[in-house]
């Protein structure tokens, strides 16, 4: 049996998942009853990085005869056959020359379990499409005669019996092939693939691959996965359905925001610079990610989106220059546009409800150090107490410099304090009007 080869770049552990990978590897390789094991985490918490680390750790460990096979279901769900995806991974480590019996069993199982034969047979027998079978069955019965149809139905039953027999043969072949070794399927992105594909995969882990030395790690946002099933079924059975297939769950939480703040800043900065690449790296980016890590609960997906947005803006538009002193403002505008597009759109078009959208969202998502925002609807102004970069962005986006009373800046001293803070963000020498133009251009480029 040969080791599977995956193109994982895991030389660094920016988000400290290696220890978690080791613990999960130990559990799944030593505790058979814990399979299927689910890794439950929100989007952006590093589940894919963790799954790849687990796969690599298991395959690099020469102390035991365990192999890990990584599958990203989001990339495979168009095949409509999870069985095909799983067996395709097996072919990487079990060449036909080593186990021809297993390969023959796989072929026969795929022939009768893909659903293609069943649909073709139904179409041939009843001369109807499978999707119309229920409504046209009685009419076809009258036309062709009950005796004839019974004979054809018997043939369909034979196909189903053969299907069951082939799956049993496949299961027996899998047991034999894994008699002296353990195979672990690491299934990633289960919440992002098509719900029908996810359901089939879960069912096949239970009915086809339920053999002693084959185990599963399932990675997903379990709440989202259950919601997908509920939407598919049209009722509330999604949660209970998921529980049938998971024996052990490990919640994946983000690191403590306060305790690890400095480490988070360093890691997030490195990751952002890695995303944007050497040609687009700049000290200004480090300052931006420093601010975002301190004030907003930014996650891996946020950093990836921001990095790609910055690459796009800088590479396709000469007006977005990394060397300009207003670049931090550009980057903050890009972050707002990618993470909160509905808010950016409301600010851009000055929607009537921008107050509730913007201030309500940031009172929830911002760290308490950001400050507090008060909205006094009765007097129709927004009194911003702390002029953080996002508050400055609000001033620019809403063109507060045209109506200072709107933001409670009719006091000259308070107005001077605010505008000094804003100038630090947009860069000296840039007017508020130019900054508003830049914000508008960022939103227009990133919001479609």
TrEMBL record:
Residues 17-312 form the KAP NTPase domain. It comes from the Bacteria. InterPro entries: KAP_P-loop, P-loop_NTPase. It holds the Pfam family KAP_NTPase. This is KAP-like P-loop domain-containing protein. It comes from Marinomonas balearica.
């Amino acid at each position: 049996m040969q080791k599977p080869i995956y193109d994982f770049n895991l030389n660094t552990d920016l988000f400290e998942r290696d220890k978690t990978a080791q613990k999960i590897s130990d559990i799944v390789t030593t505790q058979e009853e814990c399979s299927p094991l689910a890794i439950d985490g929100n989007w952006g918490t590093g589940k894919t990085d963790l799954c790849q680390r687990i796969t690599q750790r298991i395959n690099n460990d020469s102390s035991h005869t365990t192999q890990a096979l990584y599958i990203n279901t989001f990339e495979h769900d168009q095949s409509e056959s999870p069985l095909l995806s799983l067996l395709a991974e097996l072919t990487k480590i079990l060449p036909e020359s080593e186990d021809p019996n297993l390969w023959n069993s796989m072929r026969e199982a795929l022939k009768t379990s893909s659903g293609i034969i069943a649909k073709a047979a139904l179409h041939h027998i009843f001369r109807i499409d499978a999707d119309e079978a229920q409504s046209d069955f009685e009419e076809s019965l009258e036309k062709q005669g009950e005796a004839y149809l019974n004979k054809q139905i018997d043939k369909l039953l034979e196909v189903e019996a053969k299907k069951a027999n082939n799956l049993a043969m496949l299961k027996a072949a899998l047991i034999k092939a894994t008699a002296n070794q353990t195979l672990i399927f690491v299934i990633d992105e289960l919440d992002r693939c098509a719900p029908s594909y996810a359901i089939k995969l879960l069912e096949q882990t239970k009915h086809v691959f339920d053999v002693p030395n084959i185990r599963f790690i399932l990675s997903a946002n379990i709440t989202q996965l259950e919601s997908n099933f509920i939407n598919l079924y049209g009722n509330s059975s999604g949660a209970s359905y998921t529980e049938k297939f998971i024996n052990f769950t490990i919640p994946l939480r983000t690191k403590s925001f306060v305790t690890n703040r400095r480490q988070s800043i360093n890691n997030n900065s490195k990751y952002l610079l890695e995303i944007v690449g050497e040609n687009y790296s700049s000290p200004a980016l480090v300052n931006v990610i420093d601010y975002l890590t301190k004030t907003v609960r930014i996650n891996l997906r946020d950093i990836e989106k921001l990095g790609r947005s910055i690459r796009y803006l800088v590479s396709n538009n000469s007006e977005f220059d990394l060397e300009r002193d207003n670049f931090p403002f550009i980057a903050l505008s890009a972050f707002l546009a990618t993470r909160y597009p509905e808010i950016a759109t409301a600010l851009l078009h000055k929607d009537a409800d921008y107050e509730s959208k913007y201030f309500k969202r940031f009172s929830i998502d911002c760290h308490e150090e950001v400050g507090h925002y008060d909205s006094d609807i009765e007097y129709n102004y927004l009194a911003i107490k702390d002029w953080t970069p996002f508050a400055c962005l609000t001033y620019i986006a809403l063109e507060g410099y045209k109506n200072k009373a709107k933001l409670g800046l009719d006091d000259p001293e308070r107005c001077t304090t605010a505008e000094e803070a804003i100038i630090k963000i947009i860069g000296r020498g840039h007017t508020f009007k130019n900054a508003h133009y830049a914000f508008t251009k960022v939103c227009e480029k990133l919001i479609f």
